[in-house]
Design goal:
The structure is a single chain. The protein is α+β, with helices and mostly antiparallel strands and 691 residues long. Among the domains are: 77 residues, Helicase, Ruva Protein, domain 3 (Orthogonal Bundle); 215 residues, P-loop containing nucleotide triphosphate hydrolases (Rossmann fold), CATH 3.40.50.300; 83 residues, Elongation Factor Tu (Ef-tu), domain 3 (Beta Barrel), CATH 2.40.30.10; 107 residues, Elongation Factor Tu (Ef-tu), domain 3 (Beta Barrel), CATH 2.40.30.10. 28% of the residues lie in helices and 24% in strands. The protein has a six-stranded mixed β-sheet, sandwiched between helices. Strand 7, helix 18 and strand 8 form a beta-alpha-beta unit. Helix 3 packs across helix 4. The longest helix has 19 residues. The radius of gyration is 36 Å and the shape is globular. It catalyses: GTP + H2O = GDP + phosphate + H(+). One of its GO terms (molecular function) is GTP binding. It is found in: Cytoplasm. One of its GO terms (cellular component) is cytoplasm. This is HBS1-like protein.
């Protein structure tokens, strides 16, 4: 006997007879049983009718067409266009494209054609007519739904003065949306007050019809593209106004600034630039020693250590050059930061590197500065080397001006090496003056001071007889005190670009984020958004010049101790911003660029490197839109084949990865960038559009 049963000839009903009480029996229903084999076998003796499986009330195509024609949405029928001339047809299709861009899928093509013809090819009037019709129909259709569900946001309309109520209806006035269109490519300056008022209040040109249509989904929100809208933007749009209140609605930033800083000196961020070996670090290190920022004991230590390396003349430079590599090579490699005070100013000193290999670090330091000192070497031959083509004197002056610094002090250093020669000083002033005027500096915003960084002459005291014979101007410290502090965008949303990240000391949890607060204010306990990481953090402590503060304002160099952020996730160049008004994240921008003295023209597909704040990102010039006049902004040529030296143009730039950027008209400090290629700076740019 086989171990296995013959399954093919088995009668399942007989085999499992008596097991009905176990299999197929339902506890809840005694008449329910599992299906047997007969349920799954097709019985040809029974006549199956296919009509039993079909619906009897399927509407015919004619009925569907008639229903749609009754509703006025004849989708399948072609649009009826009366006979028109070529010019009128072009006007018709142009107006149709404009209406599709504004209304999207809500636009019926036949209704659009009828409205355009009725309004005599006036797109704005046709749009207003269609919006009135669509809003009225949408409101009438959704009245029952709105009354049953939660109340929709109230649509505010303006009553016509002097009108009477007839039949229970109040006439309303519909204000047409008239937006101001900017012509050309000029960037008009926006004052802080104007920008802050525009930020605190909604735009007055928003029409009631457009607002109603947007609530009903008839219009798309302009500029809300997946590329330019970050997750934080979408969250902010969906947040109710009662929850998305900005800082300006809770705190009057201007009054808080006056309250906390009224009795203090004005803050000024000063960057020191110039050709390599011009004596920048020695000059500023000696000044810090003269002002008491460095003790005599520490200075004696630097002197002894520099003697051992055979570099005794670098002892003052070691005040700012702290790393071993900088001291061994004798050059500044990174931006050194220090503080000192003048009679009326509190100065944050930024000592930028002069070597051409560290231009990106210099750009980062200049981007944080309000004013600048350009140090030149008066020694015969050295000034010419730095000033001629290939030297950093010209490049640094152009970079600083392109990054928004308009006040410049020229420090003629090492004048003692040429016997305090007045002729040499006048020669340098004449050559630099002509160049700086061409670069965009005003004569009243530039001053010249002769000094000696090694001996300390004319830094804080003027007592050299050979110099006093022909120079009676201010000392370097007095000249720095005459710099005017810029206006701070206090009432703008908070923005801080992270320039350094390190662990907090003292055993406290969290990490420290350093950077310059570009706009707005921050307070201890504030919750901020890190972009493009899109994570929330909370401020635990604010330190300015290693002193804990309760708040900080635009222009402050701060160190924030925060919680809620992981050091491994946060990167340099990330932006701390107000969650209700987050910074934009994009990888494609439109920019107005000014091209410097280049050898190879810029064409479509030209690979470049974008230097933006502390970031350096690979990018490509993806499109040349127009060549424009450098002064007036008028279009010289549309779609040029290339952009040559000393020209200006409007271009589109594709960045290798999404980064945080702002428009120049909204945030001047965050709307500037530099373009470099093959180790040289080729252009400066202003962000005019985020695509």
């Amino acid at each position: 006997m086989a171990r296995h049963r013959n399954i093919r000839t088995m009668n399942y009903d007989e085999e499992y007879d008596g097991y009905d009480d176990v299999y197929g029996h339902s506890v809840e229903d005694d008449y329910a049983s599992s299906p047997s084999m007969q349920h799954f076998l097709y019985d040809r003796s029974q006549e199956h009718q296919m009509s039993a499986y079909m619906q009897s009330d399927i509407p015919e195509e004619d009925e569907l067409v008639s229903d749609e024609s009754k509703n006025g949405n004849d989708v399948g029928a072609p649009s009826r266009i009366p006979p028109l001339g070529e010019l009128e047809q072009a006007q018709l299709y142009s107006c149709l494209d404009l209406l599709r861009d504004r209304m999207g899928d809500a636009l019926s093509e036949q209704a659009g054609i009828d409205a355009i013809l009725a309004c005599n090819f006036d797109a704005e009037k046709a749009l207003d007519q269609l919006l009135k019709t669509s809003v009225a129909s949408s409101l009438s259709k959704s009245t029952k739904i709105i009354t049953k569900s939660k109340p929709a946001p109230a649509i505010q309309v303006e009553k016509i003065r002097g009108s009477e109520v007839r039949d229970g209806k109040t006439p309303v006035k519909v204000v047409s949306a008239k937006k101001v269109v900017a012509t050309g490519f000029s960037l008009p300056p926006t004052s802080t007050d104007a920008s802050s008022s525009a930020y605190r209040q909604p735009a007055k040109q928003e029409s009631a019809v457009e607002e109603t249509s947007r609530q009903l989904g008839c219009l798309r929100t302009p500029g809300a593209t997946p590329r330019s809208t970050s997750p934080a933007d979408r969250e902010a749009i969906a947040t109710p106004k009662s929850q998305a209140r900005t800082r300006e609605s809770r705190v009057d930033v201007a009054s808080e600034y006056v309250k906390e800083r009224s009795g203090t000196k004005a803050l000024l961020n000063l960057v020191v630039v110039g050709h390599v070996d011009a004596g920048k670090s020695t000059l500023m290190g000696h000044m810090l020693f003269r002002l008491g920022q460095v003790s005599s004991k520490q200075m004696h230590k630097y002197e002894q250590e520099s003697k051992k390396l055979g570099k005794q003349s670098f002892m003052y430079a070691w005040v700012l050059d702290e790393t071993g590599e900088e001291r061994s090579r004798g050059i500044t490699m990174d931006v050194a930061q220090s503080q000192f005070e003048t009679e009326s100013k509190s100065i944050t000193l930024l000592d930028a590197p002069g070597h051409r290999d560290f231009i990106p670090n210099m750009i980062f330091g200049a981007a944080q500065a309000d004013v600048a000192l350009l140090v030149v070497d008066a020694t015969t031959g050295e000034f010419e080397t730095g000033f001629e083509s290939g030297g950093q004197t010209r490049e640094h002056a152009l970079l600083v001006r392109s990054l928004g610094v308009s006040q410049l002090g020229v420090v003629v250093n090492k004048l003692d090496m040429v016997g305090w020669s007045r002729d040499r000083f006048n020669e340098i002033v004449a050559r630099l003056g002509a160049f700086l005027k061409q670069a965009g500096y005003k004569e009243q915003d530039v001053f010249y001071v002769p000094v000696s960084g090694l001996t300390g002459e004319n830094l804080t005291v003027l007592d050299e007889p050979k110099l006093t014979e022909w120079y009676s101007g201010p000392t370097l410290l007095q000249a720095i005190d005459k710099f005017r502090p810029p206006e701070r965008p206090l009432n703008r949303p908070a923005r801080l670009v992270i320039s350094d990240i390190f662990k907090s000391v003292g055993g406290s949890s969290g990490c420290c984020l350093a950077g310059r607060l570009e706009s707005g204010m921050m307070q201890t306990g504030d919750k901020l958004l890190i972009m493009p990481l899109n994570e929330m953090i909370q401020i635990k402590n604010i330190a300015i010049n290693e002193v804990s503060k309760g708040s900080c304002f635009a222009g402050d160099q701060v160190v924030l101790t925060v919680s809620g952020a992981d050091l491994s996730d946060v990167s340099l160049g990330s932006v701390l911003c107000d969650p209700s008004q987050p910074v934009k994240v994009t990888s494609r921008i439109q920019a107005r660029i000014v091209i410097f003295n280049i050898d190879i023209p810029i064409t479509t597909g030209y690979p470049v490197v974008i230097h933006y704040q502390s970031l350096s990102e690979a990018a490509t010039i993806s499109k040349l839109i127009a060549q424009i006049h450098k002064s007036t902004g008028e279009v010289v040529r549309k779609r040029p084949r290339c952009l040559t030296k000393q020209t200006s143009g409007l271009v589109e730039i594709e960045i290798s990865r999404p980064i945080c950027m702002e428009l120049y008209k909204d945030y001047r400090e965050l709307g500037r960038f530099m373009i470099r290629a093959n180790g040289t700076t080729i252009a400066a740019g202003l962000v005019t559009g985020i695509l």
